[in-house]
Amino acid sequence: MACNFYMEYLDVADSTSRYARDEAVRLWNEAAGKDFVAVVAEYQTAGRGQRGNCWQSQRGENLLLSIVARPGSRLEVSRQFLFSQAVALSLHSAMGRYGIDTRLKWPNDIYAGNRKLAGILMELDFSGRFVEQAVIGIGLNVNQVNFPEMDRVPVSMRMLLGSPFPVKEVMDRVLEAFEYYYGMMLADANAVAAEYKELLLGIGEQRMFVDSSGCFAAVIEGVEPSGHLQLRRSDGTLSRYAFKEVEMLL
User: Fold this and answer.
1) Domains of the chain
2) Beta strand pairing call for 130-140 and 206-211
3) Which one of 94, 182, 233, 239 has the fewest beta carbons within 10 angstroms of its own beta carbon?
4) What digits encode the pLDDT tens for the residues 123-141?
């Protein structure tokens, strides 16, 4: 168990991230010197994902977790995407301990092959030029094997490895990895960015993308500290995209 987390366990929540945000003042008051606050639920009635999607999960089968961190004046707004990178690397590291090889799909998804294993939802609050607080929602498919039809074909740890896993054990490994990469983010931001780039799904490969103008071929060159994706088109031009402006087709 990662000892620097104040944990709140819920049977049901509409969204662990919404709960963590609404209860942040109380949770931090009860945290008694802990470095982080975390909320975990057995079931969510209105789990949220990127692009306004709903995160659907069967009761007790998956990890539904939100972490609240307060870096204070240690992370500038201009480098806010480091948070997403650190969390993605945490999930990659935790899955590696089970022998699952994952890749990080920009901006906030974790893939095993071409199937989505986990998603991250970041909500940041700013104070001047610094990130004051981050609410990090994590949905990780652990034991679920039946999923509703959706555009991103999901997969779970159980489907990949053929056996169920204790969700709490998986959570502890994710929290331990997060603590490590959070410290790395504050101490050596370039190392976090470099490791993320190395694991980025599609890096250096020609892939198909779609934006408001339609489909096009491009190669991912990297991700800026602000989170903008850099794409080199087949005609040699370099384009940059913010969240929700472009999607890689799988």
Assistant:
1) 5-198 (3.30.930.10), 206-248 (2.30.30.100)
2) unpaired
3) 233
4) 999 999 999 999 999 999 9
